[in-house]
Every structure is written in structure tokens, then in C-alpha cells.
């Protein structure tokens, strides 16, 4: 009898665990015949080179930001770059605070990596709002961001459960460099349907060349 109760409880908790809400994951555009240009790891020194080029072509990009990758996001130059891009109408999203591989972290650490950029509790913030390491994007931009890109595109069920309120945005096309020469993916030149492209602002040459190729 005891064994059957135990089995029942175990089965019940397993089914609860399996039914935990998880973050939605997208790796391609949902609208037919569209391409989304996304850029990671900013706001570093090439941030406005990229957003200005997009502006000059009448295009908008989505930028996934880190809090502490190449530099701290709270510095004066990063804040200025971030605001310039945001005020030009580009989309700003979270790429975690430290750019760590989330599958190597526990639940508390995963939560912290997200909350240092923006927090699901943002609407009820009180004293924690004053915490330096909470909701950097909200503090700088005055808005809570929507989309989230896990560093390296790395995630598992635990990551999706801990960050269940978020929408994960991956990609289905990444620019590659061979012998320092950029090879623009032919599908991108042809505006492949439903393509989510990713580039890293840390690599200005590839990013700007990619944009030039698309715009040409
Ligand atoms: Zn990244």
C-alpha cells in the first residue's frame, strides 16, 4: 500500500514537473517572406555604426544586449549608445547580464542572469528597484523588454522553466568568416523566407559588410 501511494505521489509530481510552463522558443520568422536582422553582445563600440547604417537604409534591427560582456552597460558611453539605438526605433532585448552558458547554471543563477537585465516583477518594483544589479534595461530605457536570447543559443528545460515568462529568440542563419573574408550567405542575398539572421556587434567588419550586401 505504502509503495503504491509512493508511486502515485511520484507519478503525480513528475507529471506536474512535465507540465511546468516553459518559455516559447522561436528560431525563424513567423511572417512569410521576411528577414529579421538581429545583433548580439552590445552595446559595445560598434553599436551605433550598425544602428546608423540600418537607419540610413530605412531598416530596423533587433539588438540583444549584455550587462557585463565587453564592458559594463552602466558606463556613460554604453548608455549613450543604447539610448541612441533605442530612440532611433530599433528593438532592444536581453542577452543576459554576463553572457554565461545558462545550461551550466542552477535555477537561482539563471534567474539572476535575466533579472539583472530586466525583471518579470518590474511592475511591482519597490525597494528592489534601487538595487544596482536589477533591471538594467528598464532603468536605462524606461521599458521592460520582450524578447530574450540565451547566450550561444544554449538552453534546456530548466532554463525554459525558470524563464517561462520570456520568449526565446534564436536564429536560423549566421554569418561566417573564412580566412577573414566575409561570405554573405546566398540565401540572405535572396531574402530567404522567414530568416532570422544573427550577427555580433563585436565584429563590426562582418556586421557592416553583411548590411552592405543586403542593402545592395
Ligand atoms: Zn552572444
UniProtKB/TrEMBL annotation:
One Pfam family per UniProt: Polysacc_deac_1
Keywords of the record: Carbohydrate metabolism, Cell membrane, Cell wall biogenesis/degradation, Glycoprotein, GPI-anchor, Hydrolase, Lipoprotein, Membrane, Metal-binding, Signal
Signal sequence segment: 1-17
Topological type in the membrane: Lipid-anchor; GPI-anchor
Biological process per Gene Ontology, one example term: cell wall organization
Gene Ontology annotations for the cellular component aspect, listed alphabetically: plasma membrane; side of membrane
Compartments (UniProt record): Cell membrane
PANTHER family the UniProt entry points to: CHITIN DEACETYLASE, CHITIN DEACETYLASE-RELATED
Listed name of the protein: Carbohydrate esterase family 4 protein
Organism from which the protein derives: Mycena sanguinolenta
UniProt lineage: Eukaryota, Fungi, Dikarya, Basidiomycota, Agaricomycotina
Amino acid at each position: 500500500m505504502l509503495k503504491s501511494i509512493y508511486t502515485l505521489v511520484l507519478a503525480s509530481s513528475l507529471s506536474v514537473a512535465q507540465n511546468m510552463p516553459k518559455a516559447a522558443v522561436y528560431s525563424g520568422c513567423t511572417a512569410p517572406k521576411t528577414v529579421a536582422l538581429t545583433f548580439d553582445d552590445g552595446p559595445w563600440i560598434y553599436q551605433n555604426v550598425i544602428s546608423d547604417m540600418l537607419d540610413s537604409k530605412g531598416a530596423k534591427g533587433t539588438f540583444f544586449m549584455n550587462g557585463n560582456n565587453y564592458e559594463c552597460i552602466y558606463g556613460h558611453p554604453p548608455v549613450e549608445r543604447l539610448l541612441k539605438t533605442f530612440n532611433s526605433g530599433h528593438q532592444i532585448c536581453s542577452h543576459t547580464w554576463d553572457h554565461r552558458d545558462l545550461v551550466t547554471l542552477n535555477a537561482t543563477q539563471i534567474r539572476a542572469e535575466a533579472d539583472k537585465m530586466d525583471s518579470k516583477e518590474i511592475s511591482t518594483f519597490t525597494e528592489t528597484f534601487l538595487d544596482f544589479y536589477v533591471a538594467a534595461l528598464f532603468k536605462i530605457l524606461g521599458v521592460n523588454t520582450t524578447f530574450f536570447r540565451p547566450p550561444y543559443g544554449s538552453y534546456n528545460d530548466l532554463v525554459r522553466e525558470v524563464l517561462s515568462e520570456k520568449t526565446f529568440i534564436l536564429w536560423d542563419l549566421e554569418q561566417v568568416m573564412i580566412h577573414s573574408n566575409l561570405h554573405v550567405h546566398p540565401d540572405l542575398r535572396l531574402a530567404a523566407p522567414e530568416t532570422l539572421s544573427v550577427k555580433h556587434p563585436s565584429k563590426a567588419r562582418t556586421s557592416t559588410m553583411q548590411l552592405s550586401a543586403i542593402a545592395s
